[in-house]
């Protein structure tokens, strides 16, 4: 595929690792050639000036469930990556479930890649899965270029992706320490004294997965990280008080990192007393105080990344008509909405554009081994850019979203920040509801 000609984009707000400034970004051959003052662009280079719009690095979403092959009726590469482009996401990393087969062997990974080929509007990489019977498959999967290894410490919801725990982690962490590839963990470990709860409403769902489940898991993971010095990344942290574990791990120099998700930063349990199963996810959305603590930890640099945990399903699996919380699939679709959700939440915080770019772009790119080319507006990096209006407020209408099924808990929510353009390697992937470049996405491999 031909790279676009040499050109430049300019703004008073170009977000670089060194800060936000007025600048022009010169793009050549799909990469960033230079970042210069607007009046220093060579005369032969065409420039489009976006005035006060923000030019940020394209988002890197390291936590997306695409589900193809096998469950494409839930979500497929075409719809998921169009939604990503509409949300300023230029690189996403696909989780090893809920596709069929799950990505626990090289053969299954190749099925994933074959299914994705020619269907992606943004660049896509892949995580592998860890299950009790695939320990011998992990190193071949690393050799094949997966970005991380995902494990569940509790029931994943799929029989073909059973839980793992300390026994499997002890066997695999020396390898991951040597290869410097992260173990990504769904960190809920059931308390043996917990009693089963019949799930009839949101309060029951919250009570069925208490904070102690997350605490039990994180205590074990922190100890294993200290023992093996292997990179461990806790995904979708919901409990605010547990951020202290990651603060002290950083003080101790441990490679223990953590992600939270847009739904934990936007919603809170006190607001969901009469909520329907659109809001069901695991761990559950916790209290308003938890939300406040998560924001504090982000601002303090304790939480490393924000990932959407885009986890779609057909609408009938949410059981909205019956309100059946017990049987409803747990998962929230938001790959297109991460940036405006986060920016909306920052109305009551103090954080510059550069911090947002760290959470949504630079840190996820580093986590998944793509930081040499992704996640930064810097010379030599891919020209992955998100151009957005940071002042525009708008209301979510599910039918206008790009992911396959339009059901969303964000229906009617007022958000802030609207993506106007998305460039993937210098090509215009999204512009005001249109996708000019077509399926230009490349399939990426983690750098060794």
From TrEMBL:
Pathway: Nitrogen metabolism; (S)-allantoin degradation; allantoate from (S)-allantoin: step 1/1. Pfam families: Amidohydro_1. Homotetramer. Its EC number is 3.5.2.5. This is allantoinase. GO terms for cellular component: cytoplasm. Catalyzes the reversible cyclization of carbamoyl aspartate to dihydroorotate. GO terms for molecular function: allantoinase activity; cobalt ion binding; zinc ion binding. InterPro entries: Allantoinase, Amidohydro-rel, DHOase/Allantoinase_Hydrolase, Dihydroorotase_CS, Metal-dep_hydrolase_composite, Metal_Hydrolase. Its cofactor is Zn(2+). Gene3D superfamilies: Metal-dependent hydrolases.
């Amino acid at each position: 595929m031909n790279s676009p000609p040499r050109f430049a984009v300019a703004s008073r707000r170009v977000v670089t690792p060194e800060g936000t400034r007025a600048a022009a970004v010169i793009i050549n051959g799909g990469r960033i050639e230079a970042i210069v003052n607007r009046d220093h662009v060579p005369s032969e280079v065409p420039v489009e000036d976006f005035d006060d719009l923000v030019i940020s690095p394209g988002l890197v979403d390291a936590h997306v469930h695409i589900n193809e092959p096998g469950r494409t009726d839930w979500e497929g590469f075409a719809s998921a990556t169009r939604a990503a482009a509409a949300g300023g996401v230029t690189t996403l990393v696909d989780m090893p479930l809920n596709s069929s087969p799950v990505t626990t062997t090289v053969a299954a990974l190749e099925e994933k890649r074959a299914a994705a080929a020619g269907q992606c509007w943004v660049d896509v990489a892949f995580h592998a899965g860890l299950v009790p019977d695939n320990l011998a498959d992990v190193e071949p999967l690393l050799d094949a270029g997966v970005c991380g290894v995902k494990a569940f410490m509790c029931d994943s919801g799929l029989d073909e992706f059973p839980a793992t725990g300390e026994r499997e982690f002890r066997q695999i962490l020396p390898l991951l320490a040597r290869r410097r590839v992260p173990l990504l963990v769904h960190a809920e470990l059931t308390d043996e004294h917990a009693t089963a709860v019949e799930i009839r409403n949101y309060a029951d769902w919250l009570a069925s997965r208490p904070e102690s489940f997350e605490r039990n898991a994180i205590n074990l993971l922190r100890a294993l990280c200290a023992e093996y010095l292997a990179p461990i990344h806790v995904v979708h942290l919901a409990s605010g008080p547990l951020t202290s574990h990651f603060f002290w791990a950083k003080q101790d120099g441990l490679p223990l990192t953590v992600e939270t998700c847009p739904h934990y930063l936007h919603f809170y349990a006190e607001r969901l007393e009469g909520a329907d199963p659109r809001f069901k996810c695991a761990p559950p959305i916790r209290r308003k105080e938890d939300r406040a603590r998560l924001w504090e930890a982000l601002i303090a640099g304790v939480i490393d990344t924000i990932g959407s945990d885009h986890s779609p399903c057909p609408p009938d699996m949410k059981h909205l008509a019956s309100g059946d919380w017990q049987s409803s699939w747990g998962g929230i679709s938001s790959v297109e909405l991460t940036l405006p959700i986060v920016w909306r939440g920052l109305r009551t915080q103090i954080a510059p554009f550069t911090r947002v770019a760290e959470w949504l772009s630079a840190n996820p790119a580093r986590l998944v081994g793509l930081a040499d080319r992704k996640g930064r507006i810097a010379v030599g990096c891919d020209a992955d850019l998100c151009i957005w209006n940071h002042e525009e407020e708008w209301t979510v209408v599910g039918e206008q979203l790009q992911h396959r099924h339009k059901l969303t808990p964000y229906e009617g929510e007022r958000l802030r920040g609207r993506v106007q353009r998305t460039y993937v390697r210098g090509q215009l992937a999204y512009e005001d509801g249109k996708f000019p470049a077509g399926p230009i996405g490349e399939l990426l491999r983690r750098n060794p």
